[in-house]
């Protein structure tokens, strides 16, 4: 019972992370794609400036929650995906510092260096998360002792790389729509134009990914929870985006990419349930919420803590978005 | 010696944390205090100070905060078996840390940085206090986890692993309540000396002397109070160590044989761990009894006796930690702490006499003195972690048994080198930026609302 609750909570934390950092990563990549001048880039960074750090904590908390609630999952996942996580950590570390350091000196070389770190630091995590999720869905070589026996290269396959690219595109779309809501003038037009251009690509990539999932994973055939309407709704949400942009409903378009992210994340976790890591060697060696979880008492304590703290976190994070609800313009005080 | 690399690769993130995070915590309180002065007195001088120190704080915070992710992930990456064995109790504090503290400090720091023009002054002020509180709570929870490693409580062994049985025992761990104050007071000193050293430079260069005299005073008083409290908390911690981890204490004293009734304190010793004896040593009679028990008598057990005792209790093995490292790191910590108290006493005395700005030599010395809290923090950390070996969790899990069995040494080494190089570069960039800002005499221009700061570098000599 509590194990199921914690599986749901972990899902919620990943939803928070993908939804919020999704546009952060998108904006980070777009600084190089549609940002033409130093001021452009500064404006774009400032649209996420007050919030990106808090957004990233959703990932840290997801890691902590997995550790506390499912220690065996935590141990197998993190030691198994060692090199992928190492690369992601390097990317996140560099990117986080770059946001703070880039504008502190006038030198063009200094700024260009940090801007590239922002670009690659925002590009690598979505790719790696896509690869990781595809492998979680398909199963990875896990032996009897619940250890991952493959290598980093085993994680890379056309299927998992496509997953990475799909998430990358989805976050780019999400980020450009976020920019369309937070910027003005020419920059906003460019963000919208870019969203229009990649909308079809994103839908196409995700469609191919879903079709491949039919062959690569057991999510459509397994008896368990049938994701049913959830992935279908995710698909429709994504397909509605180009029409909403054309109709000038940027806000709704952003909500729809957000909904796509939320529902896709739900689909992935539903297709896993009650497993948390599928063994491709022997189904009996898979980690489930039952054989990977903490003891009852720990789960109970953590439930009380999480349920009493999370509402406050949500409240003050929402308040932050309200405080910084205005669009960022070059006329603003930009030098932080 | 496979696990040594592991230890290196998981110790290096924690070492990195101790490089950046104490300054973040200490400086957060100093800035919150200056910001409060600004709001209460409505004096622009304090606003400028808040923004000047806030800027340096943010540079350091940016590097420190990303270690949070690493810290949350590295146990599973490098210590899979350890995570499986103790995760059901050890994972709890880490999850709470993220949930309670990381969210709080990260979110409100964003609000504080970008909220100067958008929020009422008092709400804006509350944000920086919440950052300071969040950072402190973060230390509390990570030290709750660390205290479990030093002195496991609140668990039962069940299903072949340690499981949490009492959350409040974990939180009420005696070790936590001697370790946490010691670390927090140390952090206050770190922030205090940082402010003192840079203010001293600014006063010597005659940049906004009046404002920096104010921050100098604030920093000096905080350092004085902080360093004295650190010493008292440390004394209490050492006494607790006598009960909970006498081996660490014996190693910190290079004490091979159990002392007589009146234990002398070893000032320095030529340690020979191979022969399990000291070739030479300099002692102060009675002092170890006083330090250990607050009285002139009381025998302190030596490593040889403890080794025999542990062999009986835990089976054959070497239970003696690296003695030289433990011994000397303890002394480096003590000396840096004592020097800091002396510096702060002298500084406060000079302030009281109104002579600070007329003592350029004293001001000059405050710059190298900035290193003292770092020496103390890092050597204290080395002592407590190295002195715990061969245990990861004292009496429960050995370091060598906790590694990720299928993560290769090559991967561990790659990540160790990778993180070290990345953090080396970031630290270099951080120091460069701090020097850059400190050398400029345009605090007002820096803090004002300009899109571009003055690019012209004042031709000042290097620090």
From TrEMBL, chain A:
Keywords: Cell membrane, Electron transport, Heme, Iron, Membrane, Metal-binding, Transmembrane, Transmembrane helix, Transport
InterPro entries from the UniProt entry: Cyt-d_oxidase_su2 (IPR003317)
Parts forming coiled coils: none
Claim: Repressor is one of the keywords in the record: no
Keyword Cell membrane recorded: yes
GO cellular component term of the entry, any: cytochrome complex
Family, similarity comment: Belongs to the cytochrome ubiquinol oxidase subunit 2 family.
NCBIfam families: cydB
Protein name: Cytochrome d ubiquinol oxidase subunit II
Species, as recorded: Cohnella rhizosphaerae
Taxonomic lineage of the native organism: Bacteria, Bacillati, Bacillota, Bacilli, Bacillales
Name of encoding gene: cydB
């Amino acid at each position: 019972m509590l194990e199921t609750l914690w599986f749901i909570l972990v899902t919620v934390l990943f939803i928070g992370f993908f939804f919020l950092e999704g546009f952060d990563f998108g904006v980070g990549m777009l600084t190089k794609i549609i940002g033409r001048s130093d001021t452009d880039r500064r404006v774009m960074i400032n649209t996420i400036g007050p919030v990106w750090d808090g957004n990233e904590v959703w990932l840290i908390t997801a890691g902590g929650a997995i550790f506390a609630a499912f220690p065996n999952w935590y141990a197998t996942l993190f030691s198994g995906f060692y090199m992928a996580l190492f690369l992601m950590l390097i990317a996140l570390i560099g990117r986080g510092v770059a946001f703070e350091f880039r504008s502190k000196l006038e030198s063009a070389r200094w700024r260009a260096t940090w801007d590239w770190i922002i670009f690659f630091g925002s590009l690598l995590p979505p790719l790696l998360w896509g690869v990781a999720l595809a492998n979680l869905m398909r199963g990875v070589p896990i032996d009897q002792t619940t250890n991952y026996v493959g290598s980093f290269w085993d994680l890379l396959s056309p299927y998992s790389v496509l997953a990475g690219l799909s998430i990358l595109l989805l976050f780019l779309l999400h980020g450009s729509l976020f920019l369309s809501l937070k910027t003005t003038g020419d920059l906003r037009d460019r963000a919208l134009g870019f969203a229009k251009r990649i909308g079809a690509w994103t839908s196409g990539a995700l469609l191919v990914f879903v079709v491949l999932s039919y062959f690569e994973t057991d999510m459509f055939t397994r008896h368990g929870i049938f994701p049913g309407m959830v992935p279908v709704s995710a698909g429709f949400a994504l397909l509605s985006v180009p029409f909403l942009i054309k109709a000038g409903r940027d806000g709704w378009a952003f909500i729809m990419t957000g909904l796509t992210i939320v529902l896709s994340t739900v689909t992935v976790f539903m297709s896993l349930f009650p497993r948390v890591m599928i063994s491709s060697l022997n189904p009996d060696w898979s980690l489930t919420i039952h054989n990977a979880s903490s003891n009852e008492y720990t789960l109970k304590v953590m439930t009380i803590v999480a349920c009493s703290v999370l509402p406050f976190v949500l409240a003050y994070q929402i308040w932050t978005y309200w405080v910084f609800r205005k669009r960022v313009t070059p006329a603003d005080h930009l030098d932080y | 010696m496979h696990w040594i690399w592991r230890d290196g690769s998981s110790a290096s993130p924690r070492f990195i944390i101790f490089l950046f995070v104490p300054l973040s915590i200490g400086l957060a309180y100093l800035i919150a205090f200056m910001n409060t002065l600004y709001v209460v007195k409505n004096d622009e001088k304090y606003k400028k100070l808040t923004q000047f120190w806030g800027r340096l704080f943010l540079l350091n915070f940016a590097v420190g905060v990303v270690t949070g992710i690493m810290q949350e992930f590295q146990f599973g990456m490098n210590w899979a078996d350890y995570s499986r064995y103790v995760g059901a109790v050890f994972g709890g504090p880490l999850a709470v840390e993220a949930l309670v503290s990381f969210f709080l400090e990260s979110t409100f720091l964003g609000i504080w940085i970008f909220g100067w023009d958008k929020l009422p002054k008092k709400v804006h002020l509350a944000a920086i206090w919440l950052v300071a509180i969040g950072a402190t709570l973060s230390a509390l929870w990570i030290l709750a986890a660390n205290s479990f490693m030093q002195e496991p409580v609140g668990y039962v062994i069940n299903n072949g692993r340690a499981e949490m049985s009492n959350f409040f025992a974990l939180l009420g761990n005696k070790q936590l309540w001697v370790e946490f104050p010691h670390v927090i007071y140390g952090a206050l000193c770190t922030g205090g000396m940082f402010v003192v050293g840079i203010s001293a430079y600014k006063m010597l260069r005659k940049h906004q002397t009046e404002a920096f005299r104010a921050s100098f005073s604030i920093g000096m008083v905080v350092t004085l109070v902080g360093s004295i409290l650190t010493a008292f908390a440390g004394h209490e911690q050492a006494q607790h160590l006598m009960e909970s981890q006498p081996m660490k204490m014996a190693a910190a004293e290079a004490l091979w044989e159990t002392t007589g009734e009146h234990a002398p304190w070893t000032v320095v010793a030529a340690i020979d761990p191979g022969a399990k004896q000291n070739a030479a040593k300099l002692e102060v009679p009675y002092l170890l009894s006083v330090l250990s028990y607050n009285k002139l008598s009381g025998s302190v057990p030596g490593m040889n006796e403890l080794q025999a005792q542990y062999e009986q209790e835990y089976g054959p093995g070497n239970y003696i930690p690296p003695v030289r490292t433990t011994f000397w790191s303890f002394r480096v910590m003590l000396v840096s702490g004592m020097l800091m108290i002396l510096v702060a006493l002298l500084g406060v005395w000079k302030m009281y006499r109104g002579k600070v700005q007329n003592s350029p030599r004293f001001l000059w010395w405050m710059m190298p003195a900035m290193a003292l809290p770092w020496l103390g923090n890092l050597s204290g950390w080395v002592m407590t972690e190295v002195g715990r070996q061969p245990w990861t969790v004292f009496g429960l899990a050995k370091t060598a048994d906790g590694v990720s069995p299928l993560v290769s040494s090559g991967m561990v080494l790659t990540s160790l080198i990778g993180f070290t190089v990345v953090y080396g570069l970031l630290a270099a960039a951080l120091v460069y930026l701090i020097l850059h800002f400190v050398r400029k005499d345009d605090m007002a221009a820096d803090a004002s609302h300009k899109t571009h700061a003055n690019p012209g570098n004042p031709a000042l000599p290097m620090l």
